[in-house]
Amino acid sequence: EVQKHSVHTLVFRSLKRTHDMFVADNAKPIPLDEESHKVKMAVKLRTEYGSVLHMPTLKENLREKGGPNTGDPYGHKQYSGNQGQELEYMITGTHPYPPGPGVALTADTKVQRMPSESAAQSLAVALPASQSRLDANRTAAGVGDIYRHAGISERSQPPGMSVAMVEAGGNKNSALMAKKAPTMPKPQWHPPWKLYRVISGHLGWVRCIAVEPGNQWFVTGSADRTIKIWDLASGKLKLSLTGHISTVRGVIVSARSPYLFSCGEDKQVKCWDLEYNKVIRHYHGHLSAVYGLDLHPTIDVLVTCSRDSTARIWDVRTKASVHTLSGHTNAVATVKCQAAEPQIITGSHDTTIRLWDLVAGKTRVTLTNHKKSVRAVVLHPRHYTFASGSPDNIKQWKFPDGNFIQNLSGHNAIINTLAVNSDGVLVSGADNGTMHLWDWRTGYNFQRVHAAVQPGSLDSESGIFACVFDQSESRLLTAEADKTIKVYKEDDTATEETHPVSWKPEIIKRKRF
User: Fold this and answer.
1) pLDDT higher than threshold 70 for residue 140
2) Using H for helix, E for strand and C for coil, what is the string for 319-379?
3) In a domain, 460, yes or no
4) Domain at 236, CATH number
5) 3-state secondary structure of 407
6) 55-83 mean pLDDT
């Protein structure tokens, strides 16, 4: 049987339960333990100001301190500027606005409260001229300078934050400081490029193009399975070479011998002797279509890349496969060679770029920042840098470790090809027929071109598969889907007044990847 209680008892029990429930205020801070607080502050002081604790501060009013023998509340040893003299300098605890090294503490700033206006002003006046203050008077850093120090990679710092070495009183004090976001420096002016010649003759998509080292002629490969050699000055056809049984995807002319190398979707890599206009060597080994090739600039080595997810290194003379560079998990779309390390760079449909050790035949670095296929890579002719093109972004990188420099955003299409000249003009050609021209240093997009398709072609046959500057860098040649080669040159009549840079010093928005 349930025992009956009076209303008074029930109310009292309810109150007691409520009291028990709320008596423990878990949000209330734990009372400060003086000893542990001293230890914590001593550690903080040693960490932040350890390198400058031996330095004297400005002279202080001894009466304000209560005599020269006042102790440091955090157990720090006191140092004077000259040993053996009366102790007149000290650095004491922290407060809401800690002084910099070499700044005198006043009665206002020693206590744990907000300093008065007069004390804050005196503190500001007492601060020595710091390096960071001197730097603030300079102009904003160039894009190239932003990631120059210690090879800082793209992911190492959030935008707008940087670890600044603040120089105060000649001593370095490392502190994490929020800096003003970098602004884009004014880009170099480049004259616009204009179309001045359209060369037709191929019966299929023109997939690849290369200019010979003497700058007299250039060569193209096409989906009509032929290789054609054209006079560069007149644009007239000089020679057609047949031998491939499928689309020709890559051509290159050797600077060291009278040879032309070609590769195609028929898995074949051929070496043509241009004195006899005949194939003299085949390089067998790829298991699928060969998408690109490049010659090493200083040794007789040929590198090819293929849909079989590998790149192969060949000895030009013996036709031997020196190395098979395996590691990519999808078709390798582009390959580039250079004399300096890393000597081989590949871009793949698996979204990665790999930098290879030629001697060992192994990957040195894998760059995974792109989110989509990397179909184009280009090396800058003068700087130790390169760029890669993908539908998500064009990215610039620094050799030898592939440190990220910057993104070039805005060419929202499948980028098939990149080219760059010594003046710092970067060209990107896309599957939809658009061509963007960029200033290499700042990443400013100074021109966009969309040339009309050849009469009789469909609008959908508007695509740029390859582009290259000639050896004088005064002509730009593009290989296109409307079966033509288009030749562009700089507009000689343009000036900075007639074609001004429509540039604003906007904040650089950097993508993390």
Assistant:
1) no
2) CCEEEEEECCCCCEEEEEECCCCCCEEEEECCCCEEEEECCCCEEEEEECCCCCCCCEEEE
3) yes
4) 2.130.10.10
5) strand
6) 50
